[in-house]
Amino acid sequence: MTLSILAAWKVIDAEVRRLTAKAAATAGSWGASYEQLGAVWGITRQGARKKWPDAVSRPAPTTTGKSTLALFGGNAEVAQSPSGGWGWTAEGADGATGAATGETLYATAEEAAAHAGAFLNAHALDSGDQP
């Protein structure tokens, strides 16, 4: 009985590791840095890089300017407004367009990118393309 419980925990542990790696990769694709991943997980930037080596394939976006996303067959641009907030515009794979309105600006580029990514996900042509 004790060994079967241990075996069950092994399966659960493997699934949790898989799901956290997937979440880290998704966050990285939306602009999160290893420093941010580590902070969320309670480890250092170097620890996050070691734990999820492929999560961040490019440097984190700068604190000002623009960045682009290509997810779920669509494209989005995240840009900082003159007021300092971050917005986004996007065109989904299905041709739908969307944007954060002037009244809905976000505190960080990552937060705006997350909302743009959610829009692109909602307007993907095939749900099988989702990460």
Task: Write out key terms for the chains shown.
4-stranded antiparallel beta sheet; 17% strand; 2 domains; 131 residues; alpha+beta
How are the SSEs ordered, and which strands pair?
Elements: H1 2-29, H2 34-41, H3 45-51, E1 66-71, E2 74-80, E3 86-91, E4 97-99, H4 109-122
Antiparallel strand pairs: 1-2, 2-3, 3-4
Helix pairs in contact: 2-3
| Spatial order of the strands forming the largest sheet | 1-2-3-4
Structural class: alpha+beta
Termini separation: 37 Å
Report Rg.
18 Å
User: Per DSSP, what share of the residues sits in E-state strands of 2 or more residues?
Assistant: 15-25%
The coarse silhouette is elongated
Can you walk me through this structure?
It contains four helices and four strands. It has 131 residues and is of the alpha+beta class. Helix 2 (34-41) packs across helix 3 (45-51). The longest helix has 28 residues, at 2-29. The termini are far apart. 28% of the residues are buried. The mean pLDDT is 85.
Task: Give me a quick take on this structure.
44% of the residues lie in helices and 17% in strands. The protein is built from four helices and four strands; from the N terminus they run αααββββα.
